[in-house]
Amino acid sequence: MPPMRRLAAAALAAGLMTLPAQAEMTPEERAAFREEVRAYLLENPEVLIEAMDILQSREDQAAANRDLQMLAENAQVIFESPDDWVGGNPEGDIVLVEFMDYRCGYCRKAYTEVEELVKSDGNIRFVVKEFPILGEASLLSSQFAIAVRQLHGDAAYKSAHDALIALRGEPTVDTLGRLATDLGFEAQPILDRMDAPEVMSVIQANHALADKMEISGTPTFVLKSMMLRGYVPLEAMREIVAEVRAEG
User: Fold this and answer.
1) Integer CA distances (angstroms), 19 to 9, 78, 101, in order
2) Quick one: pLDDT at residue 60?
3) How many CA within 13 A on the CB side of residue 16?
4) In this structure, is the dihedral angle defined by the CA atoms of residues 128, 160, 102 and 137, taken in order, positive or negative?
């Protein structure tokens, strides 16, 4: 291999398109070097794929490390907030947190699968974080669910949560009033509670936490050692839970 070609190959192998040595080149040598880089890439395009794979791997690892740092810094409010509903096994060895929005199609798709995961595993503590991000309808739904929990407790919240996930119409005030009645509660106290500071503070706290955790979409699932941004199929989620459990 000619010397200039060896230099070009070394530059690519090092992941550097410009080397300090180029500053010592004459304009003619620099032009020749760049031409050799181009020629090398045209003859060996697989080098670019390999370089991109390495770059992606490094970026993925950096992102995972960043997630671990954020998890460590915010663990208490992520996993132990008294403002969040807890389902599954409260003493489970795995804690699974979901940031969710009732109007999110992928949250609805994940709903039945998460229910099956938690039920079939039997040792998962499942935490729901109300994270309305898709407009006024989402906000109203979360306000309603939180108001129900604060007034009537966890079992009532679960019923409201399930009903809101299944709701196909717009969650207007009138619709939510009828839903409250269908759930066996007096509607007006719940509707009055929806705008209370105690309700809004839960939503605001979850949004503040999401900002810290760099969470911008739903569903986002959080476990002890990782964050999963987006829908994850049931079998893949089972594998992830097994991996986290094996970590101890």
Assistant:
1) 12, 45, 49
2) 63
3) 10
4) negative
Helix (H) or strand (E) holding 122: none
pLDDT > 80? residue 93: yes
pLDDT in tens, 135-157: 999 999 999 999 999 999 999 99
Q: Which two tokens stand for residue 3?
A: 């010397």
* Backbone φ, ψ for residue 88 (5° rounding): 70, -140
What pLDDT score does 239 carry? 97
Write down all domains in the chain, each with its CATH number in brackets. 3-44 (no CATH), 73-247 (3.40.30.10)
CA dihedral 144, 145, 148, 150 (to 10 degrees): -110
Beta-carbon count within 10 A of 127 CB: 20
Residue 122 has pLDDT above 90, yes or no: yes
For 207-217, the pLDDT digits (tens) are: 999 999 999 99
Query: Helix, strand or coil for residue 95?
Result: strand
Beta-bridged to residue 100, according to DSSP, are 130
